[in-house]
Sequence to fold (250 residues):
Amino acid sequence: MKKNYMTFLFVFLCGIALNAQTSGELTVTTTTSSTGGNFAPKNIVAIWVEDDAGNFIKTLLAYAQQRKTHLNTWQATTTEAGSPFNIVDAISGPTRTSHGTRTCAWDATDFEGNPVADGTYKVWMELTDKNATGNFSNFTFTKGPEPESLAPSNVPSFAGISVEWQPDPFVTGISGKANKDIFTIFPNPTSGKFKISGDEIKEVEIRNLVGDLIYKGNSIQIDISDNPKGVYLIKITSGKGAITKKIIKE
Fold:
């Protein structure tokens, strides 16, 4: 009887480990540069996540519209998933007219909104400035209950790369739901002035969608009235970890 119980317990625990879905957020930052194409400095760029088997999970950023078919690697992986050029929840827009820092985030769900299992994943980046395939690279990270911060070496067209996985510091584990409501931003949308509420706030960092740093400090009363209308990413660091939220300036 004891042996049967131990076998059951072992199988049960293995099942939990295999199905763990730690909530959290992946933040990706990189500075782009030309491939030497004939359209430079204009460029199109995509950043997305695949699982370790090469299956498309979600697009994080895609600045590409009419010429997106030249992002051949991104096109292929989304097409194989049955969702060509999928940009659900992604930062998106037209061709960039210049290079700069790009920042995007992943909420640990797939393009259908389903939480994904813990394990090994890859961040892909692709950029071109010609009517052909440009430069692309990928970086492996582990999604799980432990934070991970990577600073890969520069690769063609991508420098200053940062890949940071931050499990939710308040609710982690089996099918955990990220308790991001522990921090509130009001009003949101905002005309420019807003307040951040929450415990143990140590630092606030605000960037626009191309990665430019707008504010960095520890004030919870913030004014971005002088900045253009649009969506901004707010990284809130507390004594328990960091969370990234979005705010809309109208």
Residues 5-18, 170-179 have pLDDT under 50 and may be disordered. The longest helix spans residues 2-18.
